[in-house]
Amino acid sequence: MTIRLAILASGRGSNVQAILDAIAAGALDAQVVGVFSDKPNAAALTRVPDRLRWSRKPQQFVDRAAFDAALADAVEASAPDWVVCAGYMRILSAAFIARFPDRILNIHPSLLPKHKGLHTHQRALDAGDTKHGASVHLVNAELDGGAVLAQVTVPVLDNDNADTLAARVLACEHPLYVHVLQQIAAGHIHAADGRVWWDGQRLFTPLPLQLPSP
Ligand code: GRF
Fold this sequence. Notes:
Blueprint: E1 3-8, H1 14-24, E2 30-37, E3 53-55, H2 64-77, E4 82-85, H3 94-99, E5 104-108, H4 120-126, E6 131-138, E7 148-155, H5 162-185, E8 189-192, E9 195-198, E10 201-202, E11 207-208
Parallel strand pairs: 1-2, 1-4, 2-3, 4-5, 7-11
Antiparallel strand pairs: 5-6, 6-7, 8-9, 9-10
Helix pairs in contact: 1-5
The structure holds 5-O-phosphono-beta-D-ribofuranosylamine.
Residues 9, 11-15, 44, 86-87, 107-109, 134, 170, 173 line the site of 5-O-phosphono-beta-D-ribofuranosylamine.
């Protein structure tokens, strides 16, 4: 089944591009029905044609609820099967999440439940972690707290700094997100009541993504 993806992004949009590239290559049975941003200058928006872009400045709304309601209306109008957060840097309100129950994904640059929130790469280094990585999870009202669908692990090298580690994790985020979305498109993954099933069985452990060694 071709799944319809509404992508939320605030930044450069390399994950948006990876999704578009996978669709173009025939590796992902999906259609991007809109890219939505809280940053009108976000490079992520330029990855799709004008007609698929939506952006507003949050400062133009009376409060967070008003912005999220406008965002949710626009997303809903694109009739997505899934809402895909890809570097969307605003916390989604409970009211937004309730509009798309069990239909919002996020990619987070850590091995959740470790290092929720920001500055994950520096925090992994500071903690002396030997492994780091990225997670794709369902979005619920708890920040980076929803059920994790899949993870990719990246070794932390002796000479890593936050930038080198971030770059290696990012290179793995792209195939991870594409992999998860393709598993959804192929009908393997099902989410309900905040829980995830894989081929009809409850997923208690995130699916690992094995990548060939560089
Ligand atoms: C990625 O590292 C993602 O995990 C995090 O924000 C970054 C977005 O990068 N949530 P990009 O805009 O997709 O290039």
